[in-house]
Every structure is written in structure tokens, then in C-alpha cells.
Amino acid sequence: MTRCLRWALLGALVCLGGAVTTAEGMDARASIHGHKPPSFTDYPAELTRGLPSSTVAEPVLESKTAKQYRSVIRQEFREKANFAGHYRVAIWGCGTDCRNFAIIDKQTGAVYTMPGIDEISGVMGNDDERVDFKLDSKLLLISGCFNDDCISDDTPANPKAGRYAYVWTGKELRLIHSSPIPAEPVDTDPGLH
Predict the structure, then answer these.
(1) Phi and psi at residue 98, in whole multiples of 5°?
(2) For residue range 46-85, what is the model confidence (pLDDT) as tens digits?
């Protein structure tokens, strides 16, 4: 509970049932603010050569989100790995400038979704990819607001919108860095109305 309160007070990501954690042994503020954002090359992944030793025919759909988006997950499971060596990130739309995703283990069929996250919404004036990743890296970047929790006023920074960097451990995403996304100012020129 203390970790969740600390996240809320920092204006960063709300604690998600233990599936997303800070870097072990570091103060939450130091682990996510004030450091240079990580790059994909900082977290290399070993690429799988050839076919895995055990091949599964279908993804294993256990979470509510995985079951809800089973069609796109099954379709994406048939495609080549695109993340962290032998995983496939399946992304689907959920409205205008809104995305969600699952990480599929191409070797075991296991499907990982972020607990408590139904959508990642964009921020006006920000053109970052909502979810960004590479085949040869364990780093996954998320940009926007979780569960449409953006503040829609003209403050210079939206404390609930951010760029979040996660490292894939093979079982979960671990938050290692975050930074705020500046909000685009709302044009209040009376001549435009």
C-alpha cells in the first residue's frame, strides 16, 4: 500500500497489483525521475535462432483482457517474434489514439497483460508511439495516460501523462524510468470561436 501511495503522490504510474515494480533497492523518485531515459541498446535481448525446442499451437488465454481480445492475440501469435528475442507484442486499438497490448511468449504460448490497464490514451500534441519495442531489446516504452486518466486542462504538464520505460523480466514488466509529457496548450483565442 505504501508503494501505491508513493506512486500517486509522485504523479507517476499507479501501482498495479505487484506486476509492475521499481528497480529493486532504489528510492522510487531516484529510479524513475532525473536520469537519462534508457535506450533499446541498454537492454539487449538474445535472439532465438531457428524453431523453439517445444512449439505450442495456441496462446494460453488466462487473464480477462487476454480472453476479451483473444482474436487479435491468436492472430498475432501466428506472426514472427517482434520483442525481446522470442516474444510477440500484440497491439490493438480501443478508440481514437488509444491502444492496449499483450506480450505473447512464442515458445510457451503464455500471454501477459498489464493488470488494471484497459487502455493507453494519447496526449494532445504528443506524437510518440503508445507502445514501442524492438526484437533485440527487453525495453518496452509506453507513452500516454493509463485508462483514459489524462487531465484535460491547459496546465503546462499533465501529471498523469508520461513516458514510461519498462524492462521485460520474462514474467512481468518492471518500471525503470518515467518522465512527464507536456500538455499542448488549449487555444482560448475568442476570435477562433
Answers:
(1) -135, 135
(2) 987 755 555 788 999 999 999 999 999 999 999 999 999 9
- The count of other CB atoms within 10 Å of the CB of residue 69 is 21
CB neighbours of 37 closer than 8 A, spacing ≥ 6?
163, 165, 177, 179
Burial, 104: exposed, middle or buried (Cβ in 10 Å; 0-12, 13-18, 19+)? Answer: buried
pLDDT confidence of residue 9 = 30
- Domain segments of the chain: what residues? 17-182
- Give DSSP secondary structure letters for 107-175: TT-BEE--TT---EE--TT----SEEE-TTBSEEEEEEEETT----S--SEEEEEEEEEEEE-SS-EEE
Torsion, Cα of 65, 67, 71, 75 (10° steps): 80
Nearest one of 166, 61, 40 to 111, comparing CA atoms: 61
- Residue 44's pLDDT is 97
Q: What pLDDT was estimated at residue 176?
A: 96
Query: Distance (Å, rounded) from C-alpha 182 to C-alpha 191?
Result: 25
Q: What are phi and psi of 163, to 5 degrees?
A: -105, 120
- Radius of gyration (C-alpha) of the chain in whole angstroms: 18
User: Which segments of the chain have a pLDDT < 70?
Assistant: 1-34, 50-54, 125, 151-159, 182-193
Q: What CA–CA distance (Å, rounded) separates 137 from 118?
A: 24
